[in-house]
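Take a protein:
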Amino acid sequence: AMSNTFLLWCLALAGSSSAFAVHQQTTTFAPSRFSNRSPLSAVAAATSINGGGAAAPAAPVPELKAPPALYQGAVAAGAAKAAAPFGKIFKLGIVAGCHIAFGAYLAITVGGACPGLAQTNPGLQKMVMGAFGLPFGLIMTLVSGAELFTGNTALVTAAHLEGKTTFKDLIKNWSASYLGNFVGSVVMAYLVYQSGTLGAAPGAVNIATAKCTLSWGAAFTRGILCNWLVCMAVYMASGCSSMIGKMTAVWFPISAFVALGLDHSVANMFIIPLAMLRGAEITMGQFLVKNLIPVTLGNIVGGALCVMLPFGTTHGNWFGKKTAAAQE
């Protein structure tokens, strides 16, 4: 009986007009002033009358920045990267090395495991190799804010030549991100080797062996062409406001460089050590001298000159008068 009484009391309380009512103070506009105006114009007029008390509606963010704004945004990003301490860049470099290694891992697993397709339709096999792997590795890197050496050759170089950072900070950023990328890539190579997921597939060994038998000039040139595309992907993605925009900006250039057979120093930091662990007849000297050093130098030329030089001399102030800080 007591429970029935309590239930009836609760129902009566809930049904009353004031028990759970939320009283809100409303503001209405005078009909004589705002009745014939749109809601936005009414808000703007009310703001003017009240002395600017209400904020005006924010302008929509463009899907893609205009070219001059795109360049200035890249310079600002490069200046922020250069200003970070060595330890932070190094740790985020490890992250980027792992991300790019994941992309190369997927490319080897899928595109590198199609020997029949490579024989019957080599063009299609190269497209499969490019489409599945490296693009997602770079997307993870950009979205997470990790430090990728190859992208920094463009962004931080632009910041320095615009007088936004010093040469000392440029070298700090390049060296910390490069070392971090190397550590992350090699750690991933060991983990992938231990995982056994590649089985007896010869993809990694074949790819690495081909890379380490190039002439110095060929490796250097492939490094230039590769980072031209990689830094264009980074540059375009930095000007996109949506995730789908960034993914589109990344996918086409990155899948293209893989399909074209070009060389990315950070990806090679994973692929070649992995192949060495899997029995490839490659010495450490061959890895460094025949591939990593010329490819790295080519990557620097591709990012700093091929990508940023045209924009820096048209939208920026390259080779102009610099601030005192940039001349240190």
Observations:
- The first helix runs from residue 2 to 15.
